[in-house]
Design brief:
Elements (H helix, E strand, L loop, with lengths): L1 E2 L2 H6 L3 H10 L3 H14 L6 E2 L5 H17 L26 E4 H4 E5 L15 E4 L12 E2 L5 E2 L1 H7 L9 E4 L11 E3 L4 E2 L3 E6 L5 H9 L17 H4 L3 E4 L2 H44 L4 H13 L1 H4 L3 H16 L13 H17 L26 E4 L6 E4 L7 E9 L4 E2 L2 E2 L5 E3 L1 H8 L9 E4 L8 E3 L7 E2 L3 E5 L7 H9 L1 H10 L12 H5 L2 E4 L2 H44 L1
Amino acid sequence: MLNTSNDQRKLLPNFDQLFTSTARAPGGVARLRELILTLAVQGKLVPQDANDEPASELLKKIRAEKDRLIAEGKIKKDKPLTVLGDEEKPFDLPAGWEWVGFRDIGDWAIGSGFPKNIQGNNNLPYPFIKVSDMNLEGNEKFIINANNYVSDEDIKNFKINIHKPGTVIFPKIGGAIATNKRRILSNKTAIDNNCLGITPNSSFESEYLYLFLCSIDFTKYQVGTSVPALSQGTLEKILFGLPPLAEQSRIVTRVEELMGLCDALEEKGRLEHAQHQQLLQAMLDSLTKTQSAQELARHWQRLAQHFDLLIDRPEAVDALEQTILQLAVRGLLVAQDANDEPASELLKKIRSEKDRLIAEGEIKREKPLPSISDEKKPFCVPSSWKWVHLQDICTQITDGTHQTPAYTELGRPFLSAKNIKPFRFSPYPHRTVSEEHFHALRKGRVPEFGDILMTRVGAMIGEAAEIDIDIEFAFYVSLSLLKLPKSFVFSKFLVMWLNSPYGTSNSIEKTLGRGVSAGNLNLSFIRSFAIPFPPLAEQSRIVARVTELRALCQQLRDKLTQARSTQTQLAQTWVEQAAA
């Protein structure tokens, strides 16, 4: 007859609700896996059976066997079994369970130094397991494959320890401690000295020991900072409940069932995510491939009918925002006005302004670039627009100092690529330089309010922002400075293009050294960027509309993020209540 504890009666009726509610939350399946292991090792996952031989009898038998071996001189006298006071017990155990420590349930499996001359010969009898072997295909739970093997002669010559099948091993040194790798040896096996293991005695099933070890966060017990490590002495202080052997077997079976369900939930989530991404991308592509405002309106109406279904997560909002930018720089987001002065006339005024500045010695004349051929134009623009090179609408395109300055504790601001994100100029925090160096570093490159900074060296090349804070600063070579004739070009429109998918792909395509180093976007390439250039009045309308839509996107992103956070908190509450 099965007996169900009060905790189980409280938990089990809500288990389906717990599973479905937690699984839907971000990271919910990982939490479920943790919860399953927690419930398992606390005796709350399966009911107890009064007919099971209690763990106390198991411990008596183990003690008697050890005493016999000690008397026969086969093993040394060991420490007595762990005895706890009530205040030392982390939680109440079910009937039939006993509190034990690691030394009560088995023997430590100590690693051996790795012989340098052994080969990956799987004809030899004994696998030699390193931490990296735990990742080999087929080694998800039981160690089946290895990269290296040793012979009986190797064992003798190199004094290698061989461990019994059923030993559970785990990493004991370095970052691998945090990976939660636990593996059961399926054959007589050697392990290297970056591993540690436990060979269970007759009180513990290997698979139950495995899942118990999986429930422990070993990072809480590691010592050292540069190279963290686990020690046997520290691990021996960990206390845990020992169930009857029969119950161990039932727990292992139930955990496998529930972990299988978690696997299915993860696969379902991956499939749903992939399908959602495909559907969302198809709908957004239909917007970006439109050739007229009328066609765009029809496709937008289709998206609007399914908006709540498609735009249901922050990353979907990100994709929508990028689509908005694509439409904006193609002239599809706002209507054209026949009364607007065309871009061709605007370019004449920009040319006149640049000629004046050249004559006055304010700027240098740029080298002429060849006309933009049709094959280099990624899309068609309205008749009032013009394709231009970036240098055609800028009065200066330069970069920061190529020399690393002498930084000072106090001084004038010195900025780098770290201070620029798409659409966001963030001058704080920053390094500082002396007053003397500050003026030398700014010579010929004086950023002003309304200018544009774009990253050109580093990991995130092509990100652009308008200088919208009135601050004097010098800057590093990782940034390029774009100065505009502000009476004829809206900085915000150009920032919009640079951060659009067209602009960023242009930057990526022209970046040198990607994959070898952080990458470098030469000024000559920046000057030659092909830009779709609208009339000034239309630039203003586009900027106003995009600003409005991006603000709505941010509100939606915040709302969805908050909903996710609430869902995560609710799932965490469920988990904590179930494990309490």
